[in-house]
């Protein structure tokens, strides 16, 4: 008997949404967080995370008016991933916990499949 893996869109944590709310409060602007996958980096693919405006083909994940965007090309690479925010001694940043990545570099922004 074969079991198929259920493919789900990425999930955004409460911490990530809370950080977007803090950014909006500090800047007075409500911009969406774009999480994209591009070719490059030391492992073959890299994440691009930036504040942006929605495009027509984006998956929009929203809570309390705060949005996270994933474009259609990046979506298969981010299936079942978790988008989070971490604040550690080395710095504060949005991070992606990606079960599709077979390996990643030490900085956490580059990965391979």
In short:
The chain has 113 residues and is mostly beta strands.
| Largest beta-sheet characterization | 6 strands, mixed
Taking strands numbered 1, 2, ... along the chain, how are they ordered across the largest sheet?
A: 4-5-2-3-9-8
Task: Report Rg.
Answer: 14 Å
Assembly type of the shown chains? Answer: single chain
Proportion of β residues?
A: 35-45%
Which structural class best describes the helix and strand composition? mainly beta
Low-confidence stretches: none
- Overall 3D shape: globular
Q: Please report the total strand number as a whole number.
A: 9
Number of contiguous helices: 1
What level of helicity do the residues show?
10-25%
Which H/E pattern describes the elements?
EHEEEEEEEE
Mean pLDDT: 85
Terminal Cα span: 26 Å
Question: What do you see in this structure?
Answer:
It is a single chain. The protein has 113 residues and is mainly beta. The chain is built from one helix and nine strands; from the N terminus they run E-H-E-E-E-E-E-E-E-E. The chain has one helix at residues 14-27, and strands at residues 11-12, 32-39, 45-52, 59-63, 66-70, 82-88, 91-97, 103-104, 110-112. A six-stranded mixed β-sheet has the order 4-5-2-3-9-8. It has a three-stranded mixed β-sheet with strand order 1-6-7. Strand 8 (103-104) and strand 9 form a beta hairpin. The longest helix has 14 residues, at 14-27. The protein is globular. The two termini are 26 Å apart. The model has no long low-confidence stretch (mean pLDDT 85).
């Amino acid at each position: 008997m074969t079991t198929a893996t259920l493919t789900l869109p990425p999930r955004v944590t409460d911490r990530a949404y809370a950080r977007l709310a803090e950014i909006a409060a500090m800047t007075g602007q409500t911009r969406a967080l774009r999480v994209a996958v591009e070719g490059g980096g030391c492992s073959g693919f890299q994440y691009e995370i930036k504040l942006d405006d929605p495009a027509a083909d984006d998956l929009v994940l929203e809570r309390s008016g705060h949005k996270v965007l994933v474009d259609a090309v990046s979506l298969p690479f981010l299936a079942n991933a978790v988008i989070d925010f971490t604040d550690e001694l080395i710095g504060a940043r949005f991070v992606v916990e990606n079960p599709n990545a077979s390996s990643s570099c030490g900085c956490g922004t580059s990965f391979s499949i």
